[in-house]
Amino acid sequence: MSSEWPLWEIFIRGQHGLNHRHVGSLHAPDAEMAIRHARDVYTRRNEGVSIWAVKSDDIVASAPSEKGPLFDPSNSKVYRHPTFFDIPDEAGHM
Amino acid sequence: MYAQMVKTEAKRVKSREEMTPEEAAFQDRIEAGEKIEPKDWMPEGYRRTLIRQIGQHAHSEIVGQLPEGNWITRAPTLERKAILLAKVQDEAGHGLYLYSAAETLGVSRDALIAKLHDGSMKYSSIFNYPTLTWADIGAVGWLVDGAAIMNQVPLQRTSYGPYSRAMIRICKEESFHQRQGYDILIKMCLKGTPAQKAMAQDALNRFWYPSLMMFGPSDKDSVHSAQSMAWKIKINTNDELRQKFVDQTVPQAEYLGLTVPDPDLTWNEDKGGYDFTEPDWAEFYAVLAGNGPCNRERMAARVAAWEDGAWFREGLMAHARKAAKRGVAAE
Protein backbone atom coordinates (compact mmCIF):
# COMPACT_ATOMS: atom_id res chain seq x y z
CA MET A 1 0.00 0.00 0.00
CA SER A 2 1.32 3.51 -0.77
CA SER A 3 2.68 5.21 2.28
CA GLU A 4 2.56 8.67 0.71
CA TRP A 5 0.78 10.99 3.08
CA PRO A 6 -2.36 12.63 1.68
CA LEU A 7 -2.32 16.23 0.51
CA TRP A 8 -4.01 18.97 2.58
CA GLU A 9 -4.84 22.56 1.67
CA ILE A 10 -3.96 25.07 4.35
CA PHE A 11 -5.89 28.24 5.18
CA ILE A 12 -4.57 30.82 7.64
CA ARG A 13 -6.37 33.64 9.41
CA GLY A 14 -3.76 36.39 9.40
CA GLN A 15 -5.32 38.61 12.04
CA HIS A 16 -8.39 38.58 14.22
CA GLY A 17 -11.38 39.66 12.20
CA LEU A 18 -10.03 38.64 8.77
CA ASN A 19 -11.01 35.66 6.64
CA HIS A 20 -8.92 32.54 6.46
CA ARG A 21 -6.93 32.62 3.22
CA HIS A 22 -5.43 29.79 1.24
CA VAL A 23 -1.64 29.82 1.70
CA GLY A 24 -0.53 26.51 0.21
CA SER A 25 -0.59 22.80 0.71
CA LEU A 26 1.33 20.07 2.50
CA HIS A 27 1.37 16.33 3.11
CA ALA A 28 0.28 14.89 6.46
CA PRO A 29 -0.99 11.51 7.63
CA ASP A 30 -3.99 12.94 9.51
CA ALA A 31 -5.75 16.14 10.55
CA GLU A 32 -3.77 16.64 13.74
CA MET A 33 -0.45 16.34 11.93
CA ALA A 34 -1.70 18.59 9.13
CA ILE A 35 -2.26 21.38 11.68
CA ARG A 36 1.15 20.79 13.23
CA HIS A 37 2.91 20.85 9.89
CA ALA A 38 0.97 23.93 8.81
CA ARG A 39 2.07 25.68 11.98
CA ASP A 40 5.72 24.76 11.29
CA VAL A 41 5.67 25.69 7.61
CA TYR A 42 3.21 28.54 7.23
CA THR A 43 3.28 30.48 10.52
CA ARG A 44 7.00 30.72 11.26
CA ARG A 45 6.94 34.53 11.12
CA ASN A 46 3.75 35.49 12.93
CA GLU A 47 1.64 34.99 9.83
CA GLY A 48 -1.43 33.76 11.60
CA VAL A 49 -3.75 33.33 14.54
CA SER A 50 -5.77 30.35 13.27
CA ILE A 51 -5.32 27.45 10.84
CA TRP A 52 -7.79 25.44 8.77
CA ALA A 53 -6.65 22.24 7.08
CA VAL A 54 -8.83 20.58 4.43
CA LYS A 55 -8.03 17.40 2.56
CA SER A 56 -7.30 18.37 -1.05
CA ASP A 57 -9.51 15.52 -2.26
CA ASP A 58 -12.48 17.10 -0.47
CA ILE A 59 -12.24 20.41 -2.33
CA VAL A 60 -14.78 20.86 -5.08
CA ALA A 61 -13.74 23.33 -7.78
CA SER A 62 -15.45 24.91 -10.75
CA ALA A 63 -14.00 23.85 -14.11
CA PRO A 64 -12.10 26.39 -16.24
CA SER A 65 -14.49 25.58 -19.12
CA GLU A 66 -17.42 26.81 -17.00
CA LYS A 67 -15.84 30.23 -16.62
CA GLY A 68 -18.07 31.83 -19.25
CA PRO A 69 -21.47 30.44 -18.15
CA LEU A 70 -20.67 31.03 -14.47
CA PHE A 71 -19.18 34.48 -14.46
CA ASP A 72 -20.11 36.29 -17.66
CA PRO A 73 -23.77 36.99 -16.74
CA SER A 74 -22.75 39.44 -14.03
CA ASN A 75 -20.85 41.59 -16.56
CA SER A 76 -24.07 43.14 -17.82
CA LYS A 77 -25.55 43.82 -14.40
CA VAL A 78 -23.86 47.08 -13.61
CA TYR A 79 -26.84 48.14 -11.48
CA ARG A 80 -25.52 45.81 -8.79
CA HIS A 81 -22.82 48.37 -8.04
CA PRO A 82 -23.65 51.44 -5.94
CA THR A 83 -21.78 53.66 -8.41
CA PHE A 84 -24.54 52.93 -10.98
CA PHE A 85 -26.84 55.38 -9.21
CA ASP A 86 -26.40 59.14 -9.33
CA ILE A 87 -27.33 60.69 -6.02
CA PRO A 88 -27.61 64.50 -6.04
CA ASP A 89 -25.09 66.29 -3.88
CA GLU A 90 -27.98 68.03 -2.10
CA ALA A 91 -29.08 64.68 -0.71
CA GLY A 92 -25.86 64.47 1.30
CA HIS A 93 -23.65 61.52 1.95
CA MET A 94 -25.15 58.13 1.12
CA MET B 1 19.87 29.53 -9.93
CA TYR B 2 18.61 26.29 -8.54
CA ALA B 3 17.43 24.91 -11.90
CA GLN B 4 20.18 24.49 -14.46
CA MET B 5 19.94 23.46 -18.10
CA VAL B 6 16.29 22.44 -18.07
CA LYS B 7 15.36 20.81 -21.38
CA THR B 8 12.09 21.73 -23.10
CA GLU B 9 11.84 18.99 -25.79
CA ALA B 10 11.54 21.77 -28.37
CA LYS B 11 13.64 21.55 -31.51
CA ARG B 12 12.83 25.18 -32.18
CA VAL B 13 10.20 27.64 -30.99
CA LYS B 14 7.03 27.28 -33.08
CA SER B 15 5.96 30.21 -35.19
CA ARG B 16 2.38 31.47 -34.87
CA GLU B 17 1.42 29.76 -38.13
CA GLU B 18 2.61 26.38 -36.87
CA MET B 19 0.61 26.50 -33.65
CA THR B 20 -2.68 24.70 -33.22
CA PRO B 21 -5.58 26.99 -32.23
CA GLU B 22 -5.23 25.77 -28.64
CA GLU B 23 -1.49 26.47 -28.60
CA ALA B 24 -2.04 29.93 -30.07
CA ALA B 25 -4.73 30.75 -27.50
CA PHE B 26 -2.38 29.54 -24.76
CA GLN B 27 0.47 31.69 -26.07
CA ASP B 28 -1.89 34.68 -26.20
CA ARG B 29 -2.75 34.23 -22.54
CA ILE B 30 0.94 34.07 -21.61
CA GLU B 31 1.77 37.18 -23.61
CA ALA B 32 -1.16 39.03 -22.01
CA GLY B 33 0.45 38.27 -18.64
CA GLU B 34 -2.31 35.92 -17.51
CA LYS B 35 -1.42 33.20 -15.04
CA ILE B 36 -1.91 29.60 -16.12
CA GLU B 37 -3.64 27.57 -13.41
CA PRO B 38 -3.47 23.79 -12.86
CA LYS B 39 -6.76 22.87 -14.52
CA ASP B 40 -6.26 25.12 -17.57
CA TRP B 41 -5.31 23.63 -20.91
CA MET B 42 -1.56 23.68 -21.47
CA PRO B 43 0.83 22.13 -24.03
CA GLU B 44 2.33 18.85 -22.84
CA GLY B 45 5.82 20.28 -23.35
CA TYR B 46 5.02 23.19 -21.02
CA ARG B 47 3.73 20.81 -18.36
CA ARG B 48 6.66 18.43 -18.57
CA THR B 49 9.27 21.18 -18.70
CA LEU B 50 7.74 22.79 -15.63
CA ILE B 51 7.79 19.49 -13.75
CA ARG B 52 11.49 19.14 -14.54
CA GLN B 53 12.27 22.73 -13.63
CA ILE B 54 10.22 22.98 -10.44
CA GLY B 55 11.28 19.47 -9.41
CA GLN B 56 14.95 20.32 -9.85
CA HIS B 57 14.41 23.51 -7.92
CA ALA B 58 12.69 21.61 -5.09
CA HIS B 59 15.46 19.01 -4.95
CA SER B 60 18.02 21.81 -4.72
CA GLU B 61 16.27 23.28 -1.69
CA ILE B 62 16.28 19.92 0.06
CA VAL B 63 19.83 18.86 -0.83
CA GLY B 64 20.91 22.43 -0.05
CA GLN B 65 20.14 21.77 3.60
CA LEU B 66 23.04 19.34 3.83
CA PRO B 67 26.09 21.63 3.46
CA GLU B 68 24.61 24.00 6.06
CA GLY B 69 23.28 21.28 8.32
CA ASN B 70 26.91 20.30 8.72
CA TRP B 71 27.44 23.44 10.82
CA ILE B 72 24.34 23.46 13.04
CA THR B 73 26.14 21.58 15.80
CA ARG B 74 29.36 23.50 15.14
CA ALA B 75 28.06 27.09 15.06
CA PRO B 76 30.28 29.38 17.17
CA THR B 77 27.51 30.72 19.44
CA LEU B 78 24.03 29.71 20.55
CA GLU B 79 22.57 32.68 18.65
CA ARG B 80 24.32 31.69 15.42
CA LYS B 81 23.10 28.16 15.92
CA ALA B 82 19.48 29.28 16.34
CA ILE B 83 19.75 31.50 13.24
CA LEU B 84 21.27 28.73 11.12
CA LEU B 85 18.65 26.28 12.32
CA ALA B 86 15.91 28.72 11.28
CA LYS B 87 17.49 29.11 7.85
CA VAL B 88 17.82 25.38 7.28
CA GLN B 89 14.17 24.96 8.36
CA ASP B 90 13.22 27.60 5.78
CA GLU B 91 14.97 25.55 3.08
CA ALA B 92 12.85 22.53 3.99
CA GLY B 93 9.78 24.74 3.66
CA HIS B 94 10.95 26.03 0.27
CA GLY B 95 11.33 22.45 -0.90
CA LEU B 96 7.78 21.77 0.28
CA TYR B 97 6.29 24.80 -1.52
CA LEU B 98 7.99 23.77 -4.74
CA TYR B 99 7.09 20.09 -4.54
CA SER B 100 3.49 21.21 -3.95
CA ALA B 101 3.65 23.43 -7.05
CA ALA B 102 5.00 20.50 -9.09
CA GLU B 103 2.26 18.23 -7.74
CA THR B 104 -0.41 20.51 -9.23
CA LEU B 105 0.95 19.40 -12.63
CA GLY B 106 0.00 15.80 -11.97
CA VAL B 107 3.15 14.24 -10.53
CA SER B 108 3.45 12.90 -6.99
CA ARG B 109 6.11 14.07 -4.57
CA ASP B 110 7.23 10.51 -3.96
CA ALA B 111 7.74 10.02 -7.70
CA LEU B 112 9.91 13.15 -7.87
CA ILE B 113 11.95 12.05 -4.87
CA ALA B 114 12.44 8.61 -6.41
CA LYS B 115 13.82 10.30 -9.53
CA LEU B 116 16.23 12.35 -7.46
CA HIS B 117 17.44 9.22 -5.71
CA ASP B 118 17.94 7.19 -8.89
CA GLY B 119 19.86 10.07 -10.46
CA SER B 120 17.41 10.78 -13.29
CA MET B 121 16.66 14.23 -11.84
CA LYS B 122 19.36 16.71 -10.80
CA TYR B 123 19.82 19.39 -8.19
CA SER B 124 21.97 22.51 -8.38
CA SER B 125 25.70 21.87 -8.89
CA ILE B 126 26.56 24.25 -6.04
CA PHE B 127 25.54 21.84 -3.29
CA ASN B 128 28.22 19.38 -4.32
CA TYR B 129 30.89 21.59 -2.78
CA PRO B 130 31.90 21.09 0.86
CA THR B 131 31.46 23.61 3.70
CA LEU B 132 34.85 23.27 5.38
CA THR B 133 34.85 26.24 7.77
CA TRP B 134 32.37 28.54 9.51
CA ALA B 135 33.23 31.24 6.95
CA ASP B 136 31.78 28.93 4.31
CA ILE B 137 28.38 29.30 5.96
CA GLY B 138 28.77 33.06 5.55
CA ALA B 139 29.81 32.61 1.92
CA VAL B 140 26.92 30.26 1.19
CA GLY B 141 24.35 32.73 2.51
CA TRP B 142 25.95 35.72 0.81
CA LEU B 143 26.86 34.17 -2.55
CA VAL B 144 24.71 31.08 -3.02
CA ASP B 145 21.50 32.57 -1.68
CA GLY B 146 22.44 35.82 -3.40
CA ALA B 147 22.69 34.03 -6.74
CA ALA B 148 19.43 32.19 -6.05
CA ILE B 149 17.65 35.49 -5.35
CA MET B 150 18.86 36.86 -8.71
CA ASN B 151 16.99 34.06 -10.40
CA GLN B 152 14.00 33.84 -8.10
CA VAL B 153 12.96 37.48 -8.00
CA PRO B 154 12.10 37.56 -11.74
CA LEU B 155 10.50 34.10 -11.45
CA GLN B 156 7.84 35.62 -9.21
CA ARG B 157 6.37 36.80 -12.54
CA THR B 158 6.49 33.37 -14.15
CA SER B 159 3.41 32.28 -16.12
CA TYR B 160 2.47 29.27 -14.00
CA GLY B 161 0.34 30.43 -11.05
CA PRO B 162 1.37 27.88 -8.39
CA TYR B 163 5.07 28.32 -9.26
CA SER B 164 4.75 32.10 -9.14
CA ARG B 165 3.04 31.98 -5.75
CA ALA B 166 5.70 29.63 -4.38
CA MET B 167 8.40 32.02 -5.61
CA ILE B 168 6.75 35.02 -3.96
CA ARG B 169 6.67 33.19 -0.65
CA ILE B 170 10.27 32.00 -1.04
CA CYS B 171 11.63 35.42 -1.98
CA LYS B 172 10.20 36.90 1.21
CA GLU B 173 12.38 34.51 3.18
CA GLU B 174 15.53 34.45 1.00
CA SER B 175 16.48 37.97 1.88
CA PHE B 176 16.94 36.88 5.50
CA HIS B 177 19.22 34.10 4.25
CA GLN B 178 21.50 36.34 2.28
CA ARG B 179 21.74 38.91 5.04
CA GLN B 180 22.55 36.34 7.71
CA GLY B 181 25.43 35.10 5.52
CA TYR B 182 26.80 38.56 4.93
CA ASP B 183 26.47 39.33 8.62
CA ILE B 184 28.68 36.33 9.45
CA LEU B 185 31.33 37.70 7.09
CA ILE B 186 31.08 41.26 8.43
CA LYS B 187 31.81 39.86 11.86
CA MET B 188 34.80 37.88 10.60
CA CYS B 189 36.25 40.48 8.23
CA LEU B 190 35.61 43.79 9.96
CA LYS B 191 35.48 42.80 13.61
CA GLY B 192 37.51 39.59 13.62
CA THR B 193 41.14 38.55 13.85
CA PRO B 194 43.47 38.35 10.82
CA ALA B 195 43.08 34.58 10.92
CA GLN B 196 39.28 34.92 10.71
CA LYS B 197 39.54 37.33 7.80
CA ALA B 198 41.90 34.92 6.03
CA MET B 199 39.30 32.21 6.56
CA ALA B 200 36.66 34.42 4.92
CA GLN B 201 38.99 35.10 1.98
CA ASP B 202 39.53 31.37 1.58
CA ALA B 203 35.77 30.80 1.55
CA LEU B 204 35.31 33.45 -1.16
CA ASN B 205 38.15 31.89 -3.18
CA ARG B 206 36.43 28.51 -3.14
CA PHE B 207 32.82 29.64 -3.62
CA TRP B 208 33.25 32.42 -6.20
CA TYR B 209 33.40 30.34 -9.38
CA PRO B 210 30.95 27.64 -8.25
CA SER B 211 28.50 30.51 -7.52
CA LEU B 212 28.95 31.87 -11.05
CA MET B 213 28.30 28.35 -12.35
CA MET B 214 24.90 28.34 -10.63
CA PHE B 215 23.49 30.39 -13.51
CA GLY B 216 24.50 27.70 -16.00
CA PRO B 217 26.51 28.08 -19.21
CA SER B 218 25.62 30.78 -21.70
CA ASP B 219 22.23 30.00 -23.20
CA LYS B 220 21.78 32.96 -25.50
CA ASP B 221 21.67 30.58 -28.49
CA SER B 222 19.83 27.74 -26.74
CA VAL B 223 16.51 26.61 -28.19
CA HIS B 224 15.42 25.38 -24.74
CA SER B 225 16.07 28.77 -23.27
CA ALA B 226 14.17 30.48 -26.11
CA GLN B 227 11.20 28.16 -25.63
CA SER B 228 11.22 28.62 -21.85
CA MET B 229 11.35 32.37 -22.27
CA ALA B 230 8.45 32.28 -24.73
CA TRP B 231 6.50 30.39 -22.09
CA LYS B 232 7.67 32.81 -19.36
CA ILE B 233 9.02 30.06 -17.19
CA LYS B 234 12.42 31.64 -17.62
CA ILE B 235 12.61 35.41 -17.56
CA ASN B 236 16.29 36.28 -18.17
CA THR B 237 19.19 34.59 -19.94
CA ASN B 238 21.88 32.96 -17.82
CA ASP B 239 24.44 35.57 -18.91
CA GLU B 240 22.18 38.48 -17.93
CA LEU B 241 21.69 37.09 -14.43
CA ARG B 242 25.38 36.25 -13.99
CA GLN B 243 26.37 39.77 -15.00
CA LYS B 244 23.86 41.25 -12.57
CA PHE B 245 25.16 39.01 -9.81
CA VAL B 246 28.81 40.02 -10.39
CA ASP B 247 27.90 43.70 -10.52
CA GLN B 248 26.05 43.46 -7.25
CA THR B 249 28.56 41.26 -5.44
CA VAL B 250 31.91 42.91 -6.21
CA PRO B 251 31.21 46.07 -4.16
CA GLN B 252 29.99 43.85 -1.30
CA ALA B 253 33.33 42.00 -1.39
CA GLU B 254 35.17 45.32 -1.40
CA TYR B 255 33.23 46.47 1.65
CA LEU B 256 34.41 43.37 3.48
CA GLY B 257 38.00 44.04 2.34
CA LEU B 258 38.06 40.75 0.44
CA THR B 259 39.53 40.16 -3.01
CA VAL B 260 37.46 38.45 -5.69
CA PRO B 261 39.69 35.63 -7.00
CA ASP B 262 39.72 36.92 -10.57
CA PRO B 263 42.81 38.88 -11.68
CA ASP B 264 41.01 39.98 -14.85
CA LEU B 265 38.02 41.50 -13.07
CA THR B 266 37.71 45.10 -14.34
CA TRP B 267 34.99 47.70 -14.44
CA ASN B 268 33.79 48.31 -18.00
CA GLU B 269 32.48 51.84 -18.23
CA ASP B 270 30.87 51.28 -21.64
CA LYS B 271 28.62 48.45 -20.58
CA GLY B 272 28.21 49.75 -17.05
CA GLY B 273 29.26 46.45 -15.56
CA TYR B 274 32.28 44.33 -14.75
CA ASP B 275 34.25 42.22 -17.18
CA PHE B 276 35.07 38.96 -15.47
CA THR B 277 36.50 35.50 -16.07
CA GLU B 278 34.03 32.73 -16.89
CA PRO B 279 34.08 29.73 -14.58
CA ASP B 280 35.65 26.48 -15.75
CA TRP B 281 32.75 24.86 -17.59
CA ALA B 282 34.54 21.51 -17.76
CA GLU B 283 34.36 21.45 -13.96
CA PHE B 284 30.67 22.36 -14.10
CA TYR B 285 29.85 19.45 -16.43
CA ALA B 286 31.92 17.08 -14.30
CA VAL B 287 29.96 18.13 -11.18
CA LEU B 288 26.62 17.73 -13.00
CA ALA B 289 27.71 14.28 -14.17
CA GLY B 290 28.15 13.26 -10.54
CA ASN B 291 31.86 13.85 -10.07
CA GLY B 292 31.97 16.94 -7.85
CA PRO B 293 33.68 16.86 -4.46
CA CYS B 294 30.52 15.81 -2.56
CA ASN B 295 28.01 14.29 -5.02
CA ARG B 296 28.18 10.79 -3.59
CA GLU B 297 28.07 12.01 0.00
CA ARG B 298 25.02 14.21 -0.70
CA MET B 299 23.04 11.48 -2.43
CA ALA B 300 23.99 8.91 0.21
CA ALA B 301 22.73 11.28 2.94
CA ARG B 302 19.45 11.92 1.07
CA VAL B 303 18.76 8.27 0.38
CA ALA B 304 19.63 7.30 3.96
CA ALA B 305 17.27 9.97 5.34
CA TRP B 306 14.48 8.70 3.08
CA GLU B 307 15.00 5.04 3.89
CA ASP B 308 15.62 5.52 7.60
CA GLY B 309 12.43 7.57 7.83
CA ALA B 310 10.26 5.01 6.03
CA TRP B 311 9.14 3.23 9.21
CA PHE B 312 8.05 6.55 10.67
CA ARG B 313 6.07 7.67 7.61
CA GLU B 314 4.40 4.27 7.35
CA GLY B 315 3.74 4.13 11.10
CA LEU B 316 1.91 7.45 11.08
CA MET B 317 -0.14 6.35 8.05
CA ALA B 318 -1.05 3.08 9.77
CA HIS B 319 -2.13 5.03 12.85
CA ALA B 320 -4.22 7.41 10.72
CA ARG B 321 -5.97 4.50 8.97
CA LYS B 322 -6.72 2.78 12.26
CA ALA B 323 -8.02 5.98 13.83
CA ALA B 324 -10.22 6.63 10.78
CA LYS B 325 -11.65 3.12 11.00
CA ARG B 326 -12.37 3.52 14.71
CA GLY B 327 -14.07 6.82 13.92
CA VAL B 328 -16.33 5.17 11.34
CA ALA B 329 -17.12 2.26 13.71
CA ALA B 330 -18.07 4.68 16.50
CA GLU B 331 -20.68 6.48 14.39
UniProtKB/TrEMBL annotation, chain A:
InterPro entries from the UniProt entry: PaaB (IPR009359), PaaB_sf (IPR038693)
Pfam families attached to this UniProt entry: PaaB (PF06243)
Record Gene3D superfamilies: Phenylacetic acid degradation B
NCBIfam families linked to this entry: PA_CoA_Oxy2 (TIGR02157)
Descriptive protein name: 1,2-phenylacetyl-CoA epoxidase subunit B
Source lineage: Bacteria, Pseudomonadati, Pseudomonadota, Alphaproteobacteria, Rhodobacterales
Gene name of this polypeptide: paaB
Automatic annotation (TrEMBL), chain B:
Gene3D superfamilies assigned to the protein according to its UniProt record, in alphabetical order: 1.20.1260.10
Keywords: Oxidoreductase
Record bears the keyword Glycosyltransferase: no
Organism superkingdom: Bacteria
EC number: 1.14.13.149
InterPro entries with a match to the protein in the record: Aromatic_CoA_ox/epox (IPR052703), Ferritin-like (IPR012347), Ferritin-like_SF (IPR009078), PaaA (IPR011881), PaaA_PaaC (IPR007814)
Class of enzymatic activity (EC top level): oxidoreductase
GO MF, any single term: phenylacetyl-CoA 1,2-epoxidase activity
Identification of the protein by name: 1,2-phenylacetyl-CoA epoxidase subunit A
Name of the gene: paaA
